[in-house]
Specification:
Elements lengths: L1 H30 L3 H22 L1 E2 L9 E2 L12 H33 L5 H13 L2 H12 L6 H8 L11 H26 L3 H9 L4 H28 L4 H6 L9 H8 L7 H31 L5
Antiparallel strand pairs: 1-2
Helix pairs in contact: 2-12, 3-7, 3-9, 4-7, 7-9, 9-12, 11-12
């Protein structure tokens, strides 16, 4: 009896092992088509980061005849003591926060306007989306040469026509970048908020009107709470992209010190003129680490929004 029981246990164990092996093989077969994409992603993202990390540990100044020298973590010392880098961090915050805040308000207004039916709504919606679909470099050049140029710009033509002083991008570089970013990113938030408005339950709105609620009360007590996940989603996604703003700083205001953000600062320390590859790589590594922390936090919040749960 004991022998038969032991034999049954061995057969069950072997059967369970074969099942696990088959399941593992099936999982790998499902993942196999994704392997080329995974390898490509590692090659184009992780390999350059490892190279940048190695460069950050060396004293590599392209314009000096000194050979490349390994100096360890010495390049990371002046990262936060550099006043221009601290200024770039503040400018990045101003550009990101200012753009997201104002674009969200404008996006809500445009989404509410486009949620109503009127003749030509699809055409108006397409025109409003155009800024987000325009290449940033091309849009920056158009703004610099056709819209904000002191002599030929359309905006300054209007300002001088009513007796006001022309707007000079050189005098207000940071404000110029923020205004341009608002113009570019408001359509993105508008699209997300339109989707949120269209997902509202008509029966809830109708019940509120039957109960005598005013349009103001419906907006602040029903619509805004309903749009909160969409607002947070749009703010998180746009913030991740706005941190990487480079084209507007470079092309629109010519890299003015008052508007230099983190990407432009790192570019200047590397191939933008200083050619301090080791120091620039150290700045870049620090920025990547903080970006990973921000992206991880954003993904957790985003996952909670999509699941309808609060992960904070």
């Amino acid at each position: 009896m004991t022998t038969e029981l032991a034999a049954d246990v061995d057969v069950a164990t072997i059967h369970a092992t074969e099942i696990k092996r088959a399941e593992r093989k099936e999982r790998w077969l499902r993942r196999l088509p994704l392997l080329p994409a995974l390898i490509f992603t590692i090659v184009v993202t992780q390999v350059p980061f490892v190279i940048a990390l190695w460069i950050s540990l060396n004293d590599w100044a392209f314009l000096t005849p000194n050979p490349i020298e390994f100096i360890g973590l010495d390049n990371f010392g002046p990262v936060f003591s550099n006043p221009r880098f601290r200024g770039a961090v503040l400018n990045t915050f101003y550009i990101t926060f200012g753009t997201v805040f104002i674009s969200t308000i404008l996006g809500i207004g445009l989404a509410i306007a486009l949620d109503k039916k009127f003749i030509g709504r699809s055409i108006v919606r397409t025109l409003l989306i155009t800024p987000f679909l325009t290449m940033p470099v091309a849009a920056s050049l158009i703004w610099r040469n056709s819209i904000l140029d002191v002599r030929f710009g359309f905006v300054n033509f209007l300002l001088t026509s009513v007796g006001l002083e022309p707007f000079e991008t050189g005098a207000h570089p940071l404000l110029t970048v923020i205004i341009f970013s608002i113009w570019q990113w408001t359509p993105f938030l508008m699209l997300i908020l339109i989707a949120g408005l269209q997902s509202q339950s008509p029966s809830v709105l109708e019940a509120a009107r039957v109960d005598g609620a005013s349009n103001r009360a419906i907006f602040f007590q029903i619509t805004i709470p309903h749009l909160r996940p969409y607002i947070e989603l749009g703010a998180l996604l746009s913030s991740i992209f706005l941190i990487q703003t480079f084209d507007a700083v470079d092309q629109l205001v010519g890299g003015a010190i008052g508007a230099q953000n983190i990407p432009f600062f790192v570019h200047q320390r590397a191939i933008g003129g200083a050619f301090q590859f080791g120091e620039a790589s150290a700045f870049g590594v620090v920025v990547v680490i903080f970006s990973i922390i921000l992206a991880t936090f954003s993904l957790r919040v985003l996952s909670g929004l999509l699941d309808g749960e609060d992960t904070l």
